[in-house]
Design goal:
The protein is mostly helical and about 70 residues long. The protein has 2 helices and no strands. The relative contact order is 0.14.
Length: about 70
């Protein structure tokens, strides 16, 4: 489809200092990133714009994460 995704630092976050975020928090960030990539490739989102994962998907991610933490 001509789209490109750049993976930096082997997929690790590039905008956080080493050890500044607990792994449990990063699980949520990575889950939302994966959903964002899915939307980017499946929904044909406009290039050069900021897009957000919808509220329902965020709720699903949060519910799954809370279930795993219990």
């Amino acid at each position: 489809s001509g789209k490109t995704v750049f993976i930096l630092r082997d997929g690790a976050a590039v905008n956080f200092l080493l050890g500044s975020c607990p792994d449990q928090t990063m699980d949520l960030v990575f889950a939302e990133m994966i959903e964002g990539f899915k939307s980017l490739f499946q929904d044909g989102l406009a290039v050069g714009r900021i897009h957000e994962v919808n509220h329902q998907i965020r709720q699903q991610i949060t519910s799954a994460w809370l279930h795993l933490q219990a």
